[in-house]
Automatic annotation (TrEMBL):
It comes from Candidatus Aeolococcus gillhamiae. One of its GO terms (molecular function) is ATP binding. Its EC number is 2.7.1.148. Pathway: Isoprenoid biosynthesis; isopentenyl diphosphate biosynthesis via DXP pathway; isopentenyl diphosphate from 1-deoxy-D-xylulose 5-phosphate: step 3/6. The keyword ATP-binding applies. InterPro entries: GHMP_kinase_C_sf (IPR036554), GHMP_kinase_N_dom (IPR006204), IspE (IPR004424), Ribosomal_Su5_D2-typ_SF (IPR020568), Ribsml_uS5_D2-typ_fold_subgr (IPR014721). ATP binds at residues 121-131. This is 4-diphosphocytidyl-2-C-methyl-D-erythritol kinase. It catalyses: 4-CDP-2-C-methyl-D-erythritol + ATP = 4-CDP-2-C-methyl-D-erythritol 2-phosphate + ADP + H(+). Keywords: ATP-binding, Isoprene biosynthesis, Kinase, Nucleotide-binding, Transferase. Catalyzes the phosphorylation of the position 2 hydroxy group of 4-diphosphocytidyl-2C-methyl-D-erythritol. The gene is ispE. Belongs to the GHMP kinase family. IspE subfamily.
């Protein structure tokens, strides 16, 4: 396995479109962020992870991922990175590169060229790295399914579950492969679709989150049953907007214990923009607030940004 990184300046910003082939030829596909509308931590598992119960939804804030495949005698993953979300290395710590390597391990040796236009902030609880990995898995599968790289490769991949490949990379990846609004159980890999209306919301960056540190700080009194998640799921299924009282992350208290600065920043955001209820998503440090419509979401984003919290008006999107 060989890894290579091109300078960030080599990444060319292209217009965001759903998915298309461009002249390289390269498949372009958006990698949508997610918000955990509601998350309950259920308990520690024997494998060291925690069982969760969550309703999460993909939103129209996304990275852009370009993928090009070429036959090869040995697998090489080459990565061009750049954009608003920061530059990432093409190493086995990079989820997009690991996703490409996982595809090649199943389908046979390939040269895989990846181009990432990073727009989703890192350490925000928005699943940016997992979204990139999900896009790489879906994009590579789409390219191989066309049969241009041989029927054997396509057949080998057809016998493999993208869901399982995603779960081997990260707990959020299966949800982001599927997209839309999903109820997540287990580590996050057990999914049930939730028929939900599109929601307007504002996402603000309160600080930097650390998933591992947040879960490590979980105490028994942070655990909860499924009542809040059941309520959110039922409201969405009936076409209603869930009440603020049942939204938010059951990881917030633990995340703030692990990172007092995040606690301070959340308090400051809530004090600065009082026209809405702000909820941490996942382990943070992004927070979201429901909005009545697109104009209201933009108004909240402007207020949060003016107070020193970079923010964006968003809406939930289907898979």
């Amino acid at each position: 396995m060989r890894w290579a990184t091109a300078p960030a300046g080599a990444a060319r910003r292209r217009p965001a479109r759903s998915a298309e082939y461009i002249s390289d030829p390269m498949l372009l596909i958006p990698a949508h962020a997610k918000v955990n509308l509601c998350l309950a931590v259920r308990g520690r598992r024997p494998d060291g992870f925690h069982d969760i119960d969550s309703v999460a939804a993909t939103i129209d804030w996304h990275d852009l991922v370009g993928i090009r495949l070429s036959p090869a005698e040995a697998t090489t993953v080459r990565l061009r990175v750049g954009g608003d979300g920061g530059v990432l290395p093409a190493t086995d710590d990079n989820l997009a590169a690991r996703a490409a390597a996982a595809i090649a391990a199943v389908a046979g040796p390939l040269q895989i060229d990846l181009w990432l236009d990073k727009r989703i902030p890192s350490e925000a609880g928005l699943g940016g790295g997992s979204a990139d990995a999900a896009a790489v898995l879906r994009g590579c599968a789409s390219l191989l399914d066309r049969g241009e790289f041989g029927a054997e490769r396509a057949a080998a991949l057809a016998r493999t579950s993208l869901h399982d490949l995603g779960a081997s990379l990260g707990s959020d990846v299966p949800m982001l492969i599927r997209g839309g609004t999903q109820r997540m159980r287990g580590r996050g890999e057990r999914l049930d679709a939730v028929a939900a209306p599109s929601l307007h919301l504002t996402v603000a960056i309160a600080g930097a989150g650390n998933t591992a540190a947040a879960y490590a700080a979980v105490e028994n009194f942070d655990l909860e049953d499924t009542t809040r998640v059941d309520t959110v799921s039922a409201a969405l299924e009936s076409g209603q907007v869930p009440a603020d009282d049942v939204l938010g992350s059951g990881l917030e208290v633990a995340a703030c214990r692990a990172n007092p600065l995040l606690d301070e920043r959340l308090l400051a955001l809530r004090a600065a923009v009082t026209e809405a209820r702000w909820h941490l998503t996942g382990s943070g440090g992004a927070a979201f607030a429901l909005a009545e419509n697109a104009a209201h979401a933009a108004e909240l984003a402007g207020a949060a940004s003016a107070a020193g919290f970079p923010a964006r008006a968003c809406r939930t999107v289907s898979g």
